[in-house]
Design goal:
This protein is α+β, with helices and mostly antiparallel strands. It has 2 domains: about 60 residues; about 150 residues, Umud Fragment, subunit A. The chain is built from 7 helices and 10 strands. About 10% of the residues have low confidence.
């Protein structure tokens, strides 16, 4: 991949191709992003600093997987991974958050989360239970948080745990065997590990609780997918 193709892939992942929004993430002007595209270049160090999901090797060479993984797995070579647990003492007051450039993250209802597959996804104030500021998520792309319900992902998640979600704009960024939030027409919101199905028309949903058998979800039943990038839990 050349620099332009790489930049377009990064834009697609973080902002669905919106250059102005990506410029805001990096702290540069939209004109800078446009200039990078035109010149087939970009500031690798700046992107690596601001975009914590991006692999340094891929950023420098354009080879391999775009998204890094500390457990050495990739989109094409699935292995289990452990999501960081965030302790409640790491939360800070809103005033301090503003001084440090941190944005509050909305904890939304299941109903609100069910609409995240919409290209025009927006959160109404009535659907927000609370806002949280979590410094450890500063360099993560977190679109919303929801509460886990049920025991299908136990012991990885308990019912009531709060998970931070990053909306996937393109299915090529599904990270196999990692936890995702899946919005479906028939079953509502699901929190499962995802694996490829037996054919291109299905994805395999896997629970950590072995009492819940894996099952296939028809792709055309899925209205949205978000990667779980972190969690907040209580003992």
């Amino acid at each position: 991949m050349d620099k332009k193709q790489m930049l377009e892939a990064i834009l697609g992942y973080y902002t669905n191709g919106n250059k102005a929004k990506f410029a805001s993430i990096l702290g540069v002007s939209p004109q800078t992003i446009s200039a990078w595209v035109a010149r087939n270049t970009f500031d690798s160090e700046l992107i690596y600093t601001k975009c914590s999901d991006i692999s340094a090797d891929w950023l420098l060479t354009g080879k391999g997987e775009m998204l890094k993984n500390s457990d050495n797995n990739s989109l094409s070579s699935p292995t289990p991974s452990k999501i960081d647990s965030i302790n409640d003492h790491e939360a800070i007051p809103f005033a301090e958050a503003a001084r440090n450039g941190l944005s509050p993250i909305p904890l939304v209802t299941q109903t609100a989360a069910a609409g995240f597959g919409n290209a025009n996804f927006s959160i109404e104030e009535r659907d927000v239970k609370e806002y949280y500021v979590i410094p450890k998520f500063k360099y993560c792309k977190v679109d919303f948080m929801i509460e886990v319900s049920g025991l299908s992902m136990y012991p990885y998640f308990n019912s009531g745990d709060v998970i931070a979600c990053s909306i996937l704009r393109n299915t090529q960024f599904i990270q196999w065997n990692k936890c995702h939030v899946i919005a479906t027409r028939e079953q509502g919101i699901l929190v499962k590990r995802l694996m490829p199905g037996d054919d291109m028309q299905h994805l395999r949903a896997i629970s950590d609780n072995k009492e819940y058998p894996p099952f296939d979800i028809p792709v055309d039943e899925i209205t949205g997918i978000a990667l779980v990038v972190g969690s907040v839990s209580l003992e």
